[in-house]
Fold this protein.
Amino acid sequence: MRTKFKKLLLSVHNEPIDIQHKLIEKSLLDWMGKYPQVDDITVMGVRITRELLG
């Protein structure tokens, strides 16, 4: 799952944040299928700009 998740993040990184959210949520729900969530899941995005790098 880790490699698939990394590929998902790379495939959505240029999309607006609301589209990223929808695509990642859909992917998670598709992956879970009919099974209930048994663990907490946290995904956090951070934008690093040239201004922050100095």
Q: What stands out?
A: The chain has a mean pLDDT of 88. The two ends are 35 Å apart (CA to CA). The first helix runs from residue 2 to 12.
